[in-house]
Write a structure and sequence with these properties.
The complex is a heterodimer of chains A (about 170) and B (about 375). Chain A is mostly helical. Chain A is about 70% helix and about 0% strand. Chain A contains 8 helices and no strands. Chain A starts with a helix and ends in a 12-residue tail after the last helix. Chain B is an alpha+beta fold. The radius of gyration of chain B is 22 Å and the shape is globular. In chain B, a hairpin with a 2-residue loop joins strand 9 and strand 10. Chain B is about 20% helix and about 30% strand. The chains are: A mainly alpha (about 170), B alpha+beta (about 375).
Amino acid sequence: MRRDLEQEYVEYVTARLPALRRIACQLVGDAHRGDDLVQAAVTRIYVNWRRAREADNLDAYVRTVLIRVFLDEKRRLWSRVRLVDTPPERVPLPPGDTVEDREVLRAALAQVPPRQRAVLVLRFLHDRPVDEVAETLGCTAGTVKSQTSQGLAHLRRLLGTATYAITGEGK
Amino acid sequence: MEEKLLTPLRDVPLPPSAVDLDRAVRDGRRTVRRRRVGVVAAAGLAVAAVLVAAPAILERQAAPTPATPAVTPTPTAASTAPMPSRAPAAFAPSRQYADFGWLPDGVTDRTVTTRADQLALTAATPVSPAAKDPGLMVDLRMVPAGRGIALGIERDFATSDSATGKAGAEAAEPVNGRSARWNTVAAPDPGSTALRWEYAPGAWAEVIVQRAPEGTDPRLLAHRIAADVRYGVDRPVRLPARLGVLPAGLKPISYQVSRWARGGWTVELAYSAGGRTKFGDWPLVVLMMPRASESGDGAVLGDPDSTLDGHPARRRTAMDGGASLQLYNVHGLYVEITVHDRSTLRAFGGNLDQLYRDATIYPKVADWR
């Protein structure tokens, strides 16, 4: 890659790194694993920088690459998980805990299925509009809405409806 | 509102970044270089690979009964495999150039991943629901002549510079008389080790042992496994599907076949007319696995919303201009055909149904071709 393009890449990624790390951390529920995800994503972005920089919405492009790396990893794991036929463990919720308990919420979100989790993270933690999330995931806006609904329902089940009622579907 | 529910996660402070941008640039440069070389080499070297590999295969067949080399430190007496005098200039993605020889008991799960510029084999302990750790795993990584193996454990480990096979590693006892080095980057944990050796002039292989059983010296184990690797087996990778005629230019790029001793398998086939798409995917990817369910799993697999020839199906388009056709319970298999760019989809007439219809499926492993 030409030196000026490489410099442009470094400047762009450096500026976006905090946001990318935050998305990745929210997706995988762990800052260190999140950084691994970002590392893989920014390497992939470097390789394709020449074309990436021409994207109409470079930020959306980069988020898409990050989400794809995340879903690719989950898919690889999925095939092994199925072999042991073990249902995912539920998040143990200590009595008297509150929804503000970040760790409980983080653990619960980590157990929401990957695509639904990606939808929740992009829509509610990064305020991305439905249409953009649909493009990122390669699905329709209707699917994003249904994944949102299912993701929230899943989160509600994990957290316990009695304590943590959810009243709507968000914007 | 959900915004409020998730708000506690919105601005969580993060620890100092472990993302290494310099490393991303270095890895990215290597990949770019490798692809440039690969595109040029792939066209011309496929034929050369067969021609160059032939003497190695012949040599193996003509070799005398293997003898235990005095220099190989092994926990028990080991056989040694004949060493090739020359390595292929490229591997054929539809064939497996090498295989494990001796392996410790228990590592019965297998994965083979082929590409023109690298071959990866994995032997792993079956995953047990009761086990706390995954257990012993052995990887064999190989590159053809003139390539190197990255020190890290990235999936795309082939480098365009064969000198990387010598850098960043410490001296090890030779493997069947061939120069060898310990790679301390790929296996930094106790119970793990990585041994690389020049299996033919200018061509490198590496065994990575992870989670060696307690009381076992991983270096001794790696040495014994390395000494018994079989070269030039040149075995076709057997697959559960045979695709019909592909549009001009699309060729096999990578086959990945995983089989587990307890039953179950996954197969991922990648095709391309040259490089990857702008998002880094191979243009055509076919994924298959045994799964008789006719619905999604609520996680990775969505629910079907249509049918194709009586099979539940799900069709999606993507922002990259590609499309995916997902079929459920095709004689007990889940089949997913994905095209990752617009031009490839156009080459299929904008629809993947015919690609599926033209394919022959072999659900039983015994019938794979």
